[in-house]
Amino acid sequence: MAMMYTPFEPNVSFRYILTAPSFNGIKFLCKAISLPSIDQGEVVIDYINTDFKVKGKSRWQDITLSIYDAVGIPGPGAPGGPIDIHDWLLNHHNSSNGEDGWAFTGYKEDWDIEILGPAGLPVYKWELKGAFMSAINFGSMDWAAEDAVIAEVTIKYDWARYS
Prior knowledge:
The chain is mostly beta strands. The protein is built from 3 helices and 11 strands. The chain has one domain: Pnp Oxidase, Chain A (Roll), CATH 2.30.110. Strands 1, 2, 5, 8, 9, 10 and 11 form a 7-stranded antiparallel beta sheet that branches. A two-stranded antiparallel sheet has the order 3-4. Strand 3 (38-47) and strand 4 (50-60) form a beta hairpin.
């Protein structure tokens, strides 16, 4: 008996490109990124001896970005990885003079995560609106290891759109 199914091409987790205005070459250095997720809060309405729930606030959850630390790639427009992250950090907060940046004219940006098909062309994308850095770990060094240095960045954003 023949099996009936609908053929499909699954998305695979290694085909994507991240585009962010502050990161020149991030699309080449981004090792991993989590996709957007949202939590729906609840409002509990008490009624006599029972209750019911309705939707409360919608809250987009943080995403995590892992970036390779690139060495020796000079020049404008070259992928810089953690160098670009540090420059973006200065838009958030400059530790040398104590100044904080302005949200809408400084550190908040719109990012795109493009999901690619087998031919390497975008099949859909996530647009992150108002993205900014909330935490960064520039990685660690270890004489006994043979690993690439990976920077971990936590990104908050106002909302996301799937298109």
